[in-house]
Write a structure and sequence with these properties.
- Six copies of one chain form a homohexamer.
- The first copy, chain A, has 13 helices and 14 strands.
- By secondary structure, chain A is an alpha/beta fold.
- In chain A, the strands form three sheets. In chain A, strands 13-12-1-5-3-14 form a six-stranded antiparallel β-sheet. A six-stranded parallel β-sheet of chain A has the order 7-6-11-10-9-8. In chain A, strands 2-4 form a two-stranded antiparallel ribbon.
- In chain A, strand 12 and strand 13 form a beta hairpin.
- Chains in contact: A-B, A-C, A-D, A-F, B-C, B-E, B-F, C-D, C-E, D-E, D-F, E-F.
């Protein structure tokens, strides 16, 4: 994955998004004429996949004095241990004190998403996972959520903004709305086939009106070789997608000569269900994962001062001085 | 609370943050010359406090044709039941189909935060709760998260952007960083007192260097009547803030004649711990709640078409036609 | 319910089905010239609904000497407490000692079935339950099992032999086999309608080939007013019958003007699932219950001698002498 | 074990014991002039020991046309997997459709009993298990239940009819009734010894009146070398048979010079208790198992049509066409 | 209960039994010339029944200067709350500092025993409880343990030393040893009857050699009206004493005309088993409780200085100054 | 460890501490003129570390006739299995029957303490454990409790009497009382240093007034090289001693150049917490264990007669005759 160009938002740079007490602190320090060199260490409260560091780097490179700074960090996408120092900043405190809230928040939210994505990818035995959760988060973070999912190992995502950040193309099938508006799955699938560019894969959603096996055979007969996949998204009201349903759709497609048609499964997918599908031999060719990734809890990060003008310091409960971590790389 | 002026972001209006299959759907419909009047209903997957509806209203008022639309909704901040219809849009589908992702995402994320806030407020017996979680979410949503917490019942929040949206002032005490930089809690508290405007309450953070009871008495002696509160934020490494600690600080402050000093508690607070403090008689005057609110899981919303050009429709698993809900109010 | 004419089987009367040690005992007593008046009490190991007593009565009336017997019992279909004496026989021991095995076995097996049936009936709020479990028991007891289910409160049963014992008509819809053989649900339903007598209700099984809602509408359109019910029997591989499926079938039938068509539900039904359907408002008009009733564990009965020639006796662990139970009625 | 001669009952052949809808189906097919070649597959809902196949074979050999039938099956007594096809019938449907209920019922009930018996045998380390449960089932199935227990591995059974089917002799000790009638265990044991043929083992039941150790020594002294075993059947009211009790009886018999007397244990025995006896070194020489085997839940079987006139068919949830199973043997 | 004369042991007075750091402290204070008036408060770590206070009073009355002391306490046998101050001593510290270990230890151990006894008494519905646990504790505390049990509500105890402290007579039946030595329960019971004074109740232990019911009848016949009770103490190896055993012994004694013979139950008795006996209607006339009382965990007490020469003091975690408790009475 | 000189107490020898029924038994036997040679076996109800045998040996050597006795036992401090015979006495019954209560009680109580101590020692990886629980037991057993803890593996104990029995010196630091009386930890530590002999280690208790890290540095600076250890005993009200606290104190002491100062931890220590400290790398140099050892439940012992005048006997539930145990050694 190419590193995207993160541009700090104006509201972040101005301190609008910060906890107000950092603004107070900056004002007090300025009035007291204090601007010591300070070393801040940032670590996560639980283990996971680090994400957001590139965005943090973009912010720091903008605000720290170029000739008086030293920043060390773990790389984007790395596994990190519980309470392992993931970022260490040394610079005049006034240059970055205001951004503690933003730095911790970017790392917390992005690492939460990337870690959940990785949990899915790890159990999927190479079957691609696509992030489908844009609809569960505020649109201001839909893109960065999908980007984090791809950092965590997803093969793609559904939002254009996420795909743009990750330097890829968004993945899309068709929504139930299209089929409901056109009144029939075959009609909708034919229209999709007629108007979409040839390199957009034809994936038909087959649970809207009829039984999934019947509809799968109907769209396969309608599109023939051009049909790439069917997507099963059976709602919970109908028992959700089951292992047996996938097997049966596969068997009936094969019996009818449509072995080339792949089966894509979505709807409430999480690592436990992925394991259940795979351990029971369900022939799934791809999973769409929504809320398990998008709704993942952030991994809270803590930022602590450990040196002030070369003196080891720490609040009660922490150990004064630099915490050694040979895995850190200098990034600024 | 005054209704804020929500302004739809350009990336939302352009469809950048949408699932790409909605862009595909719009293009197919346009090429097919289809733009039926369509009624979409939106409902939550679990019960909670509705939040985000004002921002959704702002988006819809911008995109729906003024003379051909009808939008009904539950009000911001209302309790909503599991699967209760919270929003119903009737308008030409092409005018709003692209925004299904954003509408669901705004409601999901904001309702998740507001609901968690409400859970804290409900058990706090009137003791004010301040939202302290900006540091756990991406700065792009720090403000809207804090706004949602206040919709849920919080008395205030720590981020300037959240306070601006909610039409209030941000709440701040002092960070550990200020004390570590100045080397002593009393010195830092005196500096705060010297430079902050008189209407900013003097709240001293008393767990940085010394035992909380000792430090509380030191800052109370230093500021006397001007001291508003002490904040206890004992880290988990030292056992966190306990019921007994609050009682002892209160007793020692009272013994020394500082009954006017209030006690504010933060650090890992959630409804269960609030209950434990209050049921065991800990004399807390305010709670700061961070990750319980900021890290709350979104409440996923589902959007379904239920009528197309006056005909009842629904996908399998849902019931065709309008779902009656007398609690809805017309908002557009 | 009319009391059926139970006729003791030859294998029972000859002692073939008995534990062989009773045959030994009889032989020893005869050789020793012993035939005391003995009182045997029979009681269940757990509470439940008593069933089988009529068949036991038929056996005893055949073997006990008419002028030297006294038999007291609880009536068929009564609730009985744990370890409550349900049957007391006083007669010369040689006349009945051989039948202890059969008496205990009839009561155990029948009471097990009746009790399970009652558990379903008790939670069904008056909605009829039909016993469908003949296929899970040996055909030698299919009839008595269904009879016991009706004693327990079922409205009917599927086996002809069970219905004959209970003095009613067997209940039947149509099997999946008929539909698979004829290739289409509507074709099979029309054939049923053509050939069955008018007083046989037309109940169509709607989960064989197509989605249940689609098929329900097809058969309703085909038979119109003559259609009595649809039966939902969705297999576990498709998530089974859910609350939401029943609601949706009802809604779609009503929308299409088929409010007179009733909904009958089968497939893995037990009291817990009946409660779930009813508490969640699923509009079910009848339940078919199979293995919950047919596979019920017998309620083991114990038979103890408590008096021999007027002397109180008992083995260790039991109390000598007659155990009073005012609920008993004399039956022979 | 020799294969018994099963003779189909008249009530089975006439369809009396069948679900009535199969009678309806047959009538409809006849009126429609349909009698296709149909392949039915039968499989169990959980794994276990297959039993009842010999009785099913007897039924099918009676009803299928000799020149137009093909039946494949797993052998009686084999382990079978969950949902593994255990029986496949190909023949004109009218010849066997009526017997689906009986076929499934025989296999379900018998396999349930055989499987429970096997569970006991598997943990008993070669110590013989005798089926004692005739008193817990309806006498119409007492024999077939005991036969199934022996198919599952039991060394014998207590009912004469079960022993007859299995080609063995019934096992019997003496009932509490004999001892209560004669008033003393030694008196009853002497009478047994006097009147029973020499090849019937002398097994004395020693918990009726006195402490088991005292009674064991009394009967051993009375019969000397002719005493084969004592049976411990202590009731639950006295704590049941415990590991320590068996050890103590053994030790006291040995101390008194009766090492040849064996110890047989009964009363609420199940695999868990067998394991506890053996793991704690209780010197048991035989177990009598009652309700654990006789009250075992049937293993429900499902029968599905998979081919009609050579065409693969299946209802939703099943895969059309023959399901390969190389373990099947042709039996007709 | 009369208050016993407690006499402090020499090893306590000399400080031999104390934690050595109190000896060090006394030496340091003497060398520094410090002997302030100090107030020590003593409270339990959990709620329970206070016991040991009389022994503590005896110790303090011996060591505190008569003209310069004030001691307040809860009375012996009172219920005390968790962390409720149970004892407050004000005196020159050198006079009592050495005895903190002994004071806390006496209260802890005795209150543990008394509390366990009370738990038995509370559920026993007036049926007397006798403390039988002397054999589970070191003989140096056997007497004080039994005394504490009686303070907790027991009707008596088995040790002579405990009875002496409590001003009562020890309760005794007969041990298994007597019966084993004499070879028969009736022989032993007759010997007991022959040699014991008439006012010692004849209680026969009936589980040594024969079944309890048989033995009960034998001893009742042997002693007739002089038999006061039978004691059931069935070992765990024989299933322990069960509800049904007690009922059966009662029934068989009554049938034989021995209604005056009472039933005393021992062996692993605890509150849970007492409840089970009584809720199931077992006609028990007395319980012997051993390890539940004797092995009870001590209720740890904490001793804190709260005032030194009139100044409120406390260590971290405690509140300085006197803790008000209106329930305290002045005892010295 | 040297074997201490146990001297039987007068109250034991006189039978005062015995269950009174042994006194009765002795009187009956004397009056009957019975004094058979009897063999008694004593075994524990659960596995553990045997303790108290030396004290029992002292008692038996005093009371048994020297020329007519044989006593076999497991050695003090050995592991013993559940129900393994740990002591076998053969002598005229009248010489020892009265002491069954004392023998069982000594073994039960002492083995309970020794076993709990061993559980701590086993998980402590060589870090010394000191018994601190004298304050939780009656002073009459404070010494024997501490002796048992040392038999179980403790490195020392706090009571003078325990140390005397074990032939070692008592371990002591300083109590909170000393610090509260002198008003400051440094002042108290300096006084301790001034007055205690040079070979008493200087261990300062650092949680009384100030934060533990601050106080540790203060006392280290005050005593320099003479400071042996700091003791952490943080009360539960302040979260207890945590892993992180120990690490932080160590780090701050090291940073300040006090690497020689050791860290001793006390307060609610048990095996589970020891494991947690060690598995999480807390640099603890010693543990003080109080109630886990002192409040341990006794391990109940049972004493049974197995031979009388050479005849094997036993009560029901036990096996007559000597129980072989090759691990026993002859001790008298």
């Amino acid at each position: 994955m190419r590193v995207p160009e993160f541009v700090p938002a104006e509201a972040v740079l101005s301190g609008q998004t910060a906890d107000v007490y950092f603004a107070h602190t900056l004002e007090i320090l300025r009035r007291e004429g204090l601007n010591p060199m300070a070393t801040m260490e940032v670590f996560p409260g639980r283990s996971g996949i680090l994400c957001g560091m590139e965005e943090v780097r973009a912010l720091l490179s903008r605000v720290l004095p170029e000739d008086n700074r030293e920043v060390w960090a773990l790389p984007e996408g790395e596994a990190m241990g519980r309470r392992e120092v993931a970022l260490r900043i040394t610079a005049p405190y006034q240059s970055y004190g205001l951004y503690e809230t933003a730095i911790a928040g970017i790392l917390a939210h992005c690492s939460g998403w990337a870690t959940a994505a990785r949990q899915c990818v790890e159990v999927a035995r190479g079957i691609p996972i696509v992030s489908f959760g844009a609809r569960h988060v505020h649109p201001s973070v839909a893109g960065i959520m999908d980007y984090s999912a791809i950092v965590g190992g997803c093969a793609g995502c559904s939002s254009s903004s996420g795909a743009a950040l990750a330097g890829t193309r968004p993945s899309g099938t068709m929504p139930h709305a299209l089929i409901l508006l056109m009144g029939d799955t075959v009609v909708a699938t034919r229209a999709f086939d007629r108007h979409m560019p040839p390199d957009t894969p034809r994936i038909s959603l087959v649970d809207t009106f009829k039984d999934e096996t019947e509809e799968s055979l109907r769209v396969a007969e309608a599109l023939g070789d051009r049909l790439n996949s069917v997507r099963l998204d059976t709602p919970a009201e109908r028992g959700g997608v089951t292992v047996d349903l996938v097997k049966e759709v596969r068997a009936r497609l094969d019996l009818a000569g449509f072995s080339h048609v792949r089966i894509f499964v979505s709807g409430g997918i999480d690592p436990e269900r992925i394991v259940r599908f795979l351990e029971n031999g369900a022939p799934v060719d791809g999973f769409g994962v929504g809320s398990y990734i998008s709704d993942a809890r952030p991994i809270d990060f803590t930022a602590d001062l450990h040196e002030v003008d070369g003196r080891p310091v720490a609040k009660r409960g922490r150990t004064p001085g630099i915490t050694p971590n040979p895995r850190l790389k200098r990034i600024l």
